[in-house]
Design a protein that fits this description.
mainly alpha
């Protein structure tokens, strides 16, 4: 795989330059191809090292930036092509500089991290029965919190409600692959709890909830088998297409004061399935497919967004001078102890300052990606320094949460905390601020459940022999 990735690192950028749309100048095509090459570099490096981190964090960071900043310059979708004419060379060079700075922070700076960073440590796992009890409790807490969303939001347990089940699902998947679960345990996990989880996620109307969940399972499968479940991924992609086409109509009928806003989960699921089936079998009935596809591609394209912010800052909108990062301080205080803690509304304020919503629209919020946020605060200097610090932070987090020095349970907890940070589409404090509290919550939970017995042995990430029938 290392050789294949090395060839791809060279061939893909060359091919992209050759097939670049006419809207791009030759220099823009070259800069954009360099961005794609830099985004592929972490995958190449990841496949060369041994032992490598179990979770491919930096390769996924590179993939995100390729999709958000590099590849869009080569798209031929109408809505993207219109914006390509205005993207400046300065913007593309800034993205190149940001990637180089991030890699500098990740690969070259952290030589001394081994002295100051220690891996996550939880109480030693007990026998399978003891650990399984902890996993069932986590799943139970998760489903209970999903059932009372208004209470969860009021006390600020949103992040824990979403993330609490990930360590349990990771452990259950690996134990299933290793043959450690009984038939009854498999039935409860995959035949009862998983359908309930899917029901909640699908009927929210937010397919990103399902995609993130599926990504977690894919990562855990990769960690265990060192290959991707291609058949499952292809089937999932086929199912996703009609669901994505149907989601707008589904939201219109189930959100706010929609016709089915008061429907139960099963009824909403049936409605979503019916709308998706209609989208798959009668595309004309669902509207202009090409327009919808163009709009979705444009939403994933951050290059044009970044370019607009560079043009407007500080000539029309003053630098924020770090104001968007101050909320990370009070993120460390649970709302349970501070009921009047301010709610983070950067997306609303950002759209107002930059004129991204109508004058009478007081609610529209937008995602503010990390690079955009860095530039809005401190300009080019902020992007280069900020991405260097982000790279250093990722190196620290790899040691803390993503190492074969961790037990299996510690790794699943670590991946649960870490895995969504590659998707840097929302502002920094929104994504990172809750991670400390989440870490503390997991430590407290497993300390209470597991600390009172001595460990007979740790359930390692890689057992000495996968053929063992039970832990």
């Amino acid at each position: 795989m290392g050789a294949v990735s090395g060839v791809a690192l060279v061939v893909i950028p060359i091919v992209l330059v050759q097939i670049a749309p006419e809207a791009l100048s030759q220099l823009q095509a070259i800069y954009s191809a360099i961005i794609v090459a830099l985004c592929l570099l972490p995958t190449f490096l990841y496949l060369q090292i041994s032992p490598r981190p179990p979770f491919p964090l930096m390769p996924l960071v590179g993939l995100f930036h390729a999709i958000a900043y590099g590849l869009p310059m080569f798209y031929t979708y109408t809505t993207v092509i219109v914006g390509l004419h205005s993207v400046s060379d300065e913007t593309l060079l800034l993205v190149i500089g940001a990637l180089v700075s991030m890699y500098f922070g990740y690969y070259l700076l952290p030589k001394a991290l081994g002295q100051i960073a220690t891996p996550l440590r939880l109480p030693a796992e007990q026998n399978k029965s003891r650990t399984m009890t902890a996993l069932w409790i986590l799943l139970g807490i998760h489903l209970f919190l999903l059932a009372i969303p208004s209470v969860v939001k009021a006390v600020g347990l949103d992040q824990f409600a979403v993330s609490s089940a990930y360590p349990a699902w990771g452990m259950l998947l690996i134990w299933t692959l290793r043959g450690y679960l009984t038939a009854g345990e498999k039935f409860v996990a995959w035949g009862v709890v998983m359908p309930i989880e899917l029901l909640y996620r699908f009927t929210s109307g937010l397919l990103a909830n399902v995609m993130i969940w599926a990504l977690f399972f894919t990562i855990v499968y990769w960690i265990e088998r060192r290959r991707l479940p291609w058949v499952t991924l292809v089937c999932g992609a086929v199912i996703f297409v009609p669901l994505n086409e149907a989601k707008v109509e589904f939201r219109a009928q189930t959100w706010f004061s929609g016709l089915h806003s008061g429907a139960g989960l099963v009824e909403k699921a049936q409605l979503f399935a019916d709308l998706a089936w209609r989208a798959a079998t009668d595309p004309v009935a669902t509207g202009d497919d090409s327009f919808r596809t163009d709009s979705q591609v444009y939403r994933a394209t951050q290059t044009i967004f970044l370019d607009n912010i560079i043009r407007m800052t500080p000539s029309q909108v003053p630098y924020w001078n770090g104001a968007t990062y101050t909320s990370i301080v009070y993120k460390l205080i649970p709302r349970l102890f501070w009921p009047d803690k301010p709610t983070e509304t950067l997306g609303v304020e950002f759209s107002r300052r930059y004129g991204l919503r109508g004058t009478e629209d007081a609610t529209t919020s937008i995602n503010v990606p990390w690079l955009v946020e860095m530039y809005a605060n401190f300009g080019t200097f902020g992007v280069l320094v900020g991405t260097t610090l982000v790279g250093f932070m990722f190196a620290f987090l790899d040691i803390k949460f993503n190492s074969y020095r961790l037990s299996l349970l510690e790794l699943m907890v670590g991946i649960s905390i870490l895995f969504d940070l590659f998707y840097q589409e929302s502002n920094f404090s929104l994504m990172v601020g809750s991670k400390i509290l989440l870490t503390v919550a997991f430590r407290l939970f497993f300390t209470m459940v597991l600390q009172d017995r001595k460990s007979t042995r740790k359930l390692s990430v890689r057992t000495e022999a996968h053929s063992t029938a039970s832990p």
